[in-house]
Amino acid sequence: MTARILLVEDEDSIADPLAFLLEREGYRVRIARDGRAALEEFAKDTFDLVLLDLMLPFVPGTEVCREIRQTSQVPIIMLTAKDTEIDIVVGLELGADDYITKPYSSRELLARVRAMLRRSDTPRPESVEAEPLDDSVIEGHGIALDTERHEVHVRGERTQMPLREFELLSLLMRNQGRVLTRGQLIDRVWGSDYFGDTKTLDVHIKRIRARIEENPKQPQIVHTVRGVGYRFG
Ligand code: CA
After folding, report:
1. What domains are defined for the chain?
2. What is the pTM assigned to this prediction?
3. CA of 17 to the centre of ligand 1 (A)
């Protein structure tokens, strides 16, 4: 299951590359650019981790942390600008689980995120696919997707496929013979609030090809339509 991260950071020059970095690691990232937005996002969705900047407009990070802690044990990593801010985080016993001082290295941040997510093994309800389907099995070009059982068969052989790739492939297969634009695919699979590089899409397509194509270097099933997007069949 893809971990969902709420990134609370008001500076675009920090938030955007950080979101990209985390997405590239396979996390789902939602960005809130001030304290109020952070609490709103947190109230309406489920997150596995919160990365929380200390200095924020409207509601400061310290207050966001306190409010979240009233209802949730979600792991919180504070992003602090300087050493003196660490004293605030620690001294006030905000209930944050960890802190990182800016500037941090990507490697350090990812290591902390991974460690934090490993530690928090709180069970949570599985998300339910709301999309009703008349026929749960989609087939074409030797590929069969069972969307109810979440199974993929490639030329008769069962294959493992991570959720995001599965969603992407099923979207392409439901539109066999039709070109789907990069924008459509990203919107539907990653959500319209997706931040980050569209290369993520290409990487997923590449992985799908590696699983389903006989020769991934010369794809015969998932076609690239240059300058537009991708087509199944
Ligand atoms: Ca800030």
Report:
1. 4-121 (3.40.50.2300), 137-232 (1.10.10.10)
2. 0.51
3. 15
